[in-house]
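Troubleshooting entry. The earlier prediction with zinc ion gave an output that would not parse, so I re-checked the input for stray whitespace and re-submitted. Clean input:
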Amino acid sequence: MMSLTIEARDHASRARAGALHTAHGDVRTPAFVPLATKATVKGLLPVEVAALGYEMVLGNTFHLLLNPGPELIERFGGMGRFMGWEGPIVTDSGGFQVFSMGHGTVAEEIKSRPSRGTRSSAVGWAGRAGSDREGAILAIEEEGVRFRSYVDGRERFLSPEGSMGMQAALGSDLALVFDECTPFHVDREYTARSTERTHRWLERCLRWHAQHGPREQLVYGIVQGGVWEDLRRESAQTIAESGCEGVAIGGSLGAEKAQMYEVVGYATEELMGDHEGKPRHLLGIGEVDDLIKGVELGIDTFDCAMPTRLGRHGTALIPDPENRWRVDLTKGRWRESDEPLLEGCECPTCAGGFSRAYLSYLARAGELTGARLLSTHNLAFLARLMADLRQGILDGELKSVAGAWRAGEFAPKR
Ligand SMILES: [Zn+2]
């Protein structure tokens, strides 16, 4: 059976709506995937995440390998059983986190220069969870990567086979192959060599999985190639022809949004025709305008730390394109505001009738409830966006739905 059923296509773009079939159920696409990096969607119960309309979460091989480790999670029946999430799970390979330590600058780039590399591109707050600067990379070899654990300082080794073994222990429905996430600042030569190694690692991952992997687990290859058109197209072709069930797009997508859209477009163009039935995932991207454009470019699923991370830091997502769809509630102007967070939003936070003054107070005081309320709203906001885009594709009205969202229009659900 194909892993993706396409139910409708938009005629003015590459957008499609469908269903991704996994061992733990279907995921309606296009969809955003909340992060459960360390086997928890920070601050929320699994049942709350599901109630917001989410059907899949993303766990991380690197962090879960170091703590609590594969043996414990396997003993408890895999990541889903361990954390009480009954739906599909996708796991990232750990490549990005390992290489973030080595390339060093990625974490700093996210913090200080918001327009540089993360798991894939990094325009603004986009980004993967947790590169840990306390760890250190010791050696990058053809065999794999040797590094020092940020948890206990011990020397560890992660290889393509090791990553697939860990993802088998996690029992995820979708596994990503182990890749080198090439950073933004390297040259074409480095990117070309690194992309070739990623392709060799892909073969090793597939070989390991064919012999030892869970049979129902789908494997996604990862398109690299930096911002270079020929490298990206070649990489997309290689992944599509490799026997992977799905295709993820990662690595540096450029310094600004226009370039990022171009680079994603190179990859999705190569995936049309014969390879259309393969689901496509865009790694580490979750800004509202990027999600809209990504859907138009033919991406099926996205993940990003942004909505929950912003929520923990007092910022809420609202339909305000001028301010990057954000409001910072820790700012003094909300201290006494009786405004609701977002009129017409049906999430538990907004339905609870909390004033911006109260949310601002909680956020400034660092109260857990504040982080929970804002993370809940932010995830609900993106779930609503994706549901609207999906419905737009099904109704043949994507253009007007996308236009309304881009213009900052937001109305209670029809
Ligand atoms: Zn809300």
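This one parsed fine. The two ends are 35 Å apart (CA to CA).
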